[in-house]
């Protein structure tokens, strides 16, 4: 709850300035602005939005606004005039229009960096996203199955085997960072990985609060942790650049070397990534893996504990794959992963009901028209995943868990955006799929589990997490 209060307090002063600026701007195009009030003076709509976010009720919050003002409405959020856009057509507009750039809170920019895929637009965005997507493309993931298998087995042996109780959230996050460290950055040293993991815990504690420098809010600790991570990555980038220049390292070995290698391929193309830019990219990739795949794995474990029929079907699918192996020590292959169809449908339904990313704010770089209304330059467009993913007209009985929705999906475009869409589709979706399926394979074939805490509530800060970290009791399967 501390973070919630920090965010509110941190925006008081900027709001005073932005309120005056917004009022002037509003007069110039008032006849075309979307309907809706701008909320309580100074505070805007922050209290209602943050409470809905914290309690994971953004769908209800947005639904009330849509019922009252329609699918396009204005409000004041985080000190900036904002337009809430609801529905598949609005999602497509936000994801595909080049009139918007992503808007992040100041500490995100300061800690993660200014030149990341979330901060750029136009040609620079395409250049960066294309580079990451090329390295994480499907045929590369097929080559990584064995390494993912090895990392997951090591993690389970070290943290799950022989224990009768574990807390899932920190373990899932630790595994995600280990996989990123091993596969994406090829960091062999577990000491280095463990340092990065410890620092990332501190970074996430303060990332979403405004950096106002109050010691009791741990923001100074967060800043120091971020500096340590960036320092470690700086050393890695320098070492990889030297190894690549001396011909001792291939561009296929890790993302950092791949980005370094691009500058030597075609001097006529603007592919050069300077060291600071590579570090920013690396920070963002680590953040994305830390707080997305781990969320999916966590809530799959929670759901399977509460849904015996679904769990039985997942176990049956995974045991068929395990029993097809000549030995229990044989690693999974890409063909094995491709057979995990039902397990992935369960994962997709989890993502629909509990999206790791609640939504996104994007800032208009010019006046833009949508549905007869003007979104002025400098205003934010707010997209919320749950608005469409919990819409009964798109997903009948949206509160019901039903993986069959994804058997032969006829879901309207831009109604399910667990991995973004359009210009902002996640380039790491296959990596997330591979990590999730391999992890769930070894968990369900080796353990049964029960929740230690019932009910186990859910809070967003801003990613969803069980309130107590999801402690479970383990029973090894015979």
Automatic annotation (TrEMBL):
PROSITE patterns: CYTOCHROME_P450. Pfam families: p450 (PF00067). The keyword Lipid biosynthesis does not apply. Its cofactor is heme. One of its GO terms (molecular function) is monooxygenase activity. Keywords: Heme, Iron, Metal-binding, Monooxygenase, Oxidoreductase. CDD domains: CYP90-like. Belongs to the cytochrome P450 family. This is Cytochrome P450 716B1-like. It comes from Iris pallida.
């Amino acid at each position: 709850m501390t973070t919630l209060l920090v965010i509110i307090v941190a925006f008081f002063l900027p709001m005073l300035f932005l309120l005056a600026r917004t009022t002037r701007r509003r007069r110039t195009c008032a006849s075309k602005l979307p309907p809706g009030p701008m909320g309580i003076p100074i505070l805007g709509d922050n209290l209602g939005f943050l409470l809905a976010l914290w309690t994971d009720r953004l769908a209800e919050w947005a639904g009330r606004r849509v019922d009252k003002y329609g699918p396009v409405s204005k409000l004041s959020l985080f000190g900036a005039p904002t337009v809430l856009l609801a529905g598949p057509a609005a999602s497509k507009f936000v994801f595909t229009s080049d009139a918007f750039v992503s808007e992040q809170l100041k500490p995100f920019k300061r800690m993660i960096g200014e030149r990341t895929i979330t901060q750029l637009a136009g040609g620079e965005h395409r250049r960066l996203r294309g580079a990451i997507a090329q390295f994480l493309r499907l045929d590369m993931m097929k080559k990584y199955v064995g390494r993912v298998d090895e990392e997951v087995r090591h993690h389970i042996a070290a943290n799950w085997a022989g224990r009768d109780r574990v807390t899932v959230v920190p373990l899932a996050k630790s595994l995600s960072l280990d996989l990123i460290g091993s596969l994406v950055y090829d960091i062999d040293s577990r000491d280095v990985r463990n340092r990065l993991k410890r620092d990332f815990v501190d970074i996430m504690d303060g990332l979403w609060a405004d950096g106002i420098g109050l010691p009791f809010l741990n923001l100074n600790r967060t800043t120091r942790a971020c500096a340590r991570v960036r320092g470690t990555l700086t050393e890695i980038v320098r070492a990889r650049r030297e190894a690549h220049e001396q011909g001792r390292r291939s561009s296929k070995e890790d993302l950092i070397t791949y980005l370094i290698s691009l500058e030597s391929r075609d001097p006529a193309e603007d592919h050069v990534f300077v060291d600071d830019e590579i570090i920013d990219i690396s920070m963002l990739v680590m953040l994305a893996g830390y707080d997305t795949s781990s969320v999916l794995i966590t809530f799959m474990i929670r759901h399977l504990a509460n849904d015996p029929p679904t769990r039985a079907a997942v176990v049956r699918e995974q045991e068929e794959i395990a029993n097809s192996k000549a030995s229990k020590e044989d690693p999974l292959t890409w063909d094995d992963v491709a057979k995990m169809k039902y397990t992935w449908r369960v994962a997709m339904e989890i993502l629909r009901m509990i999206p790791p990313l609640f939504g996104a704010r994007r800032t208009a770089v010019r006046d833009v028209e949508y549905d007869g209304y003007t979104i002025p330059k400098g205003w934010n467009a707010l997209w919320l995943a749950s608005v469409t993913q919990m819409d009964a007209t798109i997903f009948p009985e949206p509160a019901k868990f039903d993986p069959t929705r994804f058997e032969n999906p006829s879901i309207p475009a831009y109604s399910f955006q667990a991995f973004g869409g359009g210009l902002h589709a996640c380039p790491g979706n296959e990596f997330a799929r591979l990590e999730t399926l391999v992890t769930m394979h070894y968990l369900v074939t080796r353990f049964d589990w029960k929740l230690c805490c019932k009910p186990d509530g859910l809070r967003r800060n801003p990613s969803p997490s069980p309130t107590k970290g999801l402690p479970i009791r383990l029973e090894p399967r015979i």
